[in-house]
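Attaching the record inline, Q. Sequence:
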Amino acid sequence: MKKIGIIASFVVLLVLTNSFALKKVIPLNWKPSDDITSLGTITLGKLSSLKVMVKNIVDERSIKTEIGKNIEEEGIEKYYVTNDNVSTWATDKLTSLLKQIGIAIVKENPDIIIEAKLIRFYVTESSTYKGEVSFNFTVSTKDGQNIWNGIISGKSNRWGRSFKAENYQECISNAFVQAVFNLFKEESFISAINKL
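Structure, as predicted:
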């Protein structure tokens, strides 16, 4: 009887608060539908002749495992979480995209060093999937002189069936690609590199 009473109390609590949470654990699969070279012209300037080192991205988000939320149903919170290391994943994808557009990535003796802090990595699902990825980038020379710093973001918006891992993965991947593309559309970034 005591056990039944505890269960009944829990049910009543749910009704009174009209809220409970579900979590969907998903892997960080890379599934962009947007290719970075298809988003527009990318002008590398002096970057085309420089050797670049990419430092491991620092994840500055307060909740490392939470990467998305479904808010379609009032009172029901549905979260996307991952067991993958977001920092490692983001470092790998940033490096791959830089290589794809023609930048020489090295592990030693660089001309410049790119560091990034991940400050936003999230998809909010309502009527559509809305993804956002934001970095705080710092670029320095091999002797430690900072030449540029800035916050760069990318966003993605797509339709898809509700609470599906594949739709989340595509949305966050596209937002990531857009953020990297936007870095090269930032005139102050390109100008700082060209002054070297």
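The chain is about 30% helix and 35% strand. The beta strands are 20-25, 51-54, 58-59, 66-70, 76-81, 104-105, 112-125, 129-141, 146-158.

More tomorrow.
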